[in-house]
Amino acid sequence: MTLSQPEQLLPSGFDYHPAVISLDKSIALYDYLCEQLIWQQPRIQVFGKYHTIPRKQCFIADDDVVYSYSKQTLNNSPWPAPLLAMRHRLQRTYGFDFNALLVNWYRDGQDKMGWHSDDEAELGQEPCIVSISLGASRKFKIKHKVTGQQYELLLQSGSVLVMHGDSQQLYQHALPAQAKVSGGRINLTFRTVGQALTKAYSNGRK
Ligand SMILES: O=C(O)CCC(=O)C(=O)O
Ligand SMILES: [Fe+2]
């Protein structure tokens, strides 16, 4: 995996690298994951109300990782071989052992993720989150928590978005619905979950 220079103007702490994985490989991996992963669509509690999340997800992690999402502990799925290989490659590139991977499947443009920061205590003060996109291109929005300044980025199949430094402290991000998008997209977010393992993963992500 070679990384090209970021091409789009983004706030510090967000680095976008298009075409890190070839288009053919990224689509083949999309198809494989659609079929092979055990997908869940949990109901979560946000501000006291229950919602079914508007996407599917699969949480892949080492056995000793415990991660909760809006008061529900996620079931750890084992690492499929291609994702384990990717984890090791990313470890060599970034120097982090990514022991957890939240996989999101946006079946079409109706599926989405609301504004949030990945700032849970168990990810540490300045987490490094590596986000890989497979399938349909989707808009990704970033918003400064204080000034409200927004940035928009198109996440293309095979791209890598790295969020690091104070990106989670200063900004929120979201994947808005795009009614005209008919294709599906899978997003892989590699994370390192610290040793204080049982904290809540609930941060208002809708
Ligand atoms: O689908 C995406 O690109 C964003 C996913 C995300 O923000 C998350 O899983 O925390
Ligand atoms: Fe996120």
Automatic annotation (TrEMBL):
InterPro entries (alphabetical): AlkB-like (IPR027450), AlkB-like_sf (IPR037151), ALKBH2 (IPR032852), Oxoglu/Fe-dep_dioxygenase_dom (IPR005123)
GO molecular function: broad specificity oxidative DNA demethylase activity; cytosine C-5 DNA demethylase activity; ferrous iron binding
Binding site for 2-oxoglutarate: 104, 106, 116, 173, 185, 189, 191
Pfam entry (one): 2OG-FeII_Oxy_2
GO biological process, one term: DNA alkylation repair
Residue ranges of every copy of the Fe2OG dioxygenase domain listed in the record: 97-194
SUPFAM superfamilies to which the protein is assigned, alphabetical: Clavaminate synthase-like
Amino-acid positions noted as binding substrate in the UniProt annotation, renumbered to this chain: 47-49, 67-69, 119
PROSITE patterns: FE2OG_OXY
Chain ranges passing through the membrane: none
PANTHER family per UniProt: ALPHA-KETOGLUTARATE-DEPENDENT DIOXYGENASE ALKB HOMOLOG 2, DNA OXIDATIVE DEMETHYLASE ALKBH2
Name recorded for this polypeptide: 2OG-Fe(II) oxygenase
Taxonomic source organism: Pseudoalteromonas amylolytica
Highest classification ranks of the organism: Bacteria, Pseudomonadati, Pseudomonadota, Gammaproteobacteria, Alteromonadales
